[in-house]
Design goal:
A hairpin with an 8-residue loop joins β6 and β7. The chain is mainly beta. The longest helix has 12 residues. The chain contains four helices and 13 strands. The chain is elongated, with a radius of gyration of 20 Å. Among the domains are: 42 residues, no CATH class; 115 residues, 2-Layer Sandwich (Pseudouridine synthase), CATH 3.30.2350.10.
């Protein structure tokens, strides 16, 4: 909650906005939101349990389970006090599982945020979809309406396996629009992801979408890193992935 107060400017020190990792000094005046003294309905601290795929002094990458969000929501990774000082540099939907990356320093957060914005980071997803996909590979380019604005969304896709009832796709977003992969599968390929509840009606409870890998140049190590998530059962049962 303190993280949220700082982010929204509700918590101030000496009448100034501060970040959640600010260091207080004796004599500082702290202003809390007016409802802060009453914590009866306050959520308890969350404990985020997930495998750490990679970490060093600059970054940390988790294998995020479905149901956890990067920012906001009832199950926010940053609500775990062990990770509250980390900086989110990208987002994936709460129902999506897989690689999620955080920066540990301001400098790395700025570098990675710019790298995402300039498309210098390659993200690969795996999705199990209903039906069959006729064209086995291609680039989806469509306009999506997001918050009353029409924006271009592009996704590279490849069919890895297809039994006529379901297909396993590799997806690489070239843009980062909200629900882009889910919408492209359901609305353009006419093959909604298993577990899709917003853009189709699926009987599956789990969204079969995995943030499989994330590749980026690490400026401190001066080399490329390729971080991969573990393969969930639904993926292992449909395809054995190779580099």
């Amino acid at each position: 909650m303190i993280h949220k107060w700082c982010r929204t400017g509700q918590l101030r020190v000496n009448s100034k906005r501060v970040k959640f990792n600010a260091v207080l000094k004796e004599g500082d005046e702290i202003r809390l939101p007016p409802f802060a003294p009453n914590f009866k309905g306050e959520k308890q601290e969350k404990v985020f349990e997930a495998p750490i795929l990679y970490q060093d002094d600059d970054v940390i990458a988790f294998d995020k389970p479905a149901g956890w969000s990067i920012q906001g929501g009832d199950r926010n990774i940053l609500d775990d006090l062990r990770y509250a000082s980390f900086f989110p540099v990208h987002r994936i939907d709460a129902p999506t599982q897989g690689v999620v990356l955080f920066a540990k320093t301001h400098a790395m957060a700025k570098f990675l945020s710019n790298a995402f914005a300039e498309k210098r980071i390659k993200k690969t997803y795996m999705a199990l979809v209903h039906g069959t996909v006729r064209k086995k590979r291609g680039v989806i380019s469509s306009m999506l309406t997001i918050k009353d604005k029409s924006v271009l969304a592009q996704t590279v896709y490849k069919v890895l396996s297809d039994n006529g009832r379901q297909a396993l796709l590799m997806l690489r977003p070239l843009t980062g629009r909200k629900h882009q992969l889910r919408r492209h599968c359901a609305e353009v390929l006419n093959a909604p992801i298993l577990g899709e509840y917003r853009y189709a009606q699926s009987s599956e409870k789990t969204l079969h979408l995995l943030a499989f890998s994330l590749s980026f140049f690490h400026p401190t190590l001066e080399k490329w890193l390729n971080i991969k998530a573990d393969q969930p059962k639904w993926l292992l049962n449909n395809c054995s992935l190779k580099d």
